[in-house]
Specification:
7-stranded antiparallel beta sheet, 4 helices, 7 strands, 27% helix
Length: 161
């Protein structure tokens, strides 16, 4: 019985970051697209006008805290000009670059699609680490945000963190 429990726990752990071939293909296409769009020229997210110490849960994957740059596309930027919204619009795109000692270690992307949020994450060498719609390691933290975005709030809450 104990062996079965251990096997189930190990399987559960590895299934958290399991990517299908379609997820991997979507991640590769998304990586090419964000770079073709020159995402580093996007507007910076509110509160991230310059490289900032991250408070994200991802910290436990690294030996030291990450500093991050967070970029948002024009769809998110436009949504933030509204007085109030109930969800981020389809097409919303957020990119987070994570650094240790100014070395790029992580690129994370959230993209709002017709069928939900697509998550993708690459290491500093552009190798996909996780991707998909139901990535539990991502959803576990992002569920606490306004429509899955934790870095900043809906416009109606702009004065609260």
């Amino acid at each position: 019985m104990r062996v079965l429990l251990i096997v189930l726990l190990v399987f559960s752990f590895f299934s958290l970051s399991f990517m299908t071939l379609k997820d991997l293909k979507d991640a590769d296409e998304l990586y090419e697209r964000i770079n073709a769009l020159n995402y580093k020229k996007f507007a910076r997210a509110p509160g991230f006008e310059k490289r900032t110490q991250s408070e994200a849960e991802i910290q436990h994957f690294f030996k030291e805290p990450l500093t991050v740059d967070i970029y948002m596309n024009e769809i998110v930027e436009e949504a933030l000009t509204k007085d109030s919204i109930e969800e981020w619009p389809v097409g919303s795109l957020l990119v987070k670059d994570g650094f240790l000692d100014d070395k790029l270690e992580l690129i994370s992307v959230l993209e709002k699609r017709e069928d939900g949020w697509f998550y993708a994450e690459w290491n500093g060498e552009a190798t996909a680490k996780t991707a998909g719609y139901a990535v539990q390691v991502c959803i576990g933290c992002h569920a606490s945000g306004d429509d899955m975005v934790r870095a900043f709030r809906f416009p109606q809450y702009r004065d609260s963190k």
